[in-house]
Structure formats: C-alpha cells, structure tokens
Input
Amino acid sequence: MQNKIYTGYYAGNYDMVGIRISLGFPRFAYTDVSYHIEQLYPTEDMLACADRWDVYTRMYTAHIKPIIDDVYSDLIDIAREHKKPVILLCFEKPDSRGGMPCHRRIVADMITSKFGIEIPEAISSPRVKK
Output
C-alpha cells in the first residue's frame, strides 16, 4: 500500500476506509464511513467563520494542533488494521471553494508538514448503478 491516507468528500466513491471528520453526517455516502474522529470536527463557532477563510483556518489549526500526533498514529493504525488506505471525508467538493481547501486539507497539510507524508485528494471511482 503506497499511500495510506487520502482526503475526499462524501459524494465520492472510494475503495478505502471512510473516516468522518465533519460535524454533520450526510444523508448518503458512497464510501462506507466506518470511523469518525470527533476531535477533527469543526465547531459551530468555526463554521460561523467559514466565509472568512483566514479566520477559520487559524481557529481550526489551533483546534487540531495539540492532537495531530495522536490523529496521525490512529490513521496509520486503522490503515494497517484494514490493510487498505483511509480517507478523511467531509462535505466540500474538491475546489468548490474557488480553489481554497476545506478543513480536511488543513489536517492533511499539517500531517504533511509535521511527518513528511503526502496526503493527496483522492479521485473518485465511477459509481455503478444497481
């Protein structure tokens, strides 16, 4: 398994272990969401600042910085346990913020910066109608 951690959004279709990091849960998800990490949920106060991305980023970064080592360790453990990559999921469609990333990319960038592990945005597989 080359990459163990990816990011994506609920409407994507990924053959990975889904990990919810959003405050809300979608009515649907094409990827099985097997885990959630509440410590990575943005708070209501943060979401109220989502239109001021610089403020949101500062708040969210301060929120996750103390726990990022444990989060990274947990993600690696889950990937090893399931023998497949994990994917951090939230609602934002890639580039739906005009090229600005959502909070899943803040987590990914912090892990990359601290541990030197690249965490790419996953490309969704086509969904097959049943």
User: Anything to note?
Assistant: Helices lie at 44-48, 53-64, 68-82, 103-115. The chain has a mean pLDDT of 87. The longest strand covers residues 5-9. The CA atoms of residues 52 and 83 lie 39 Å apart.
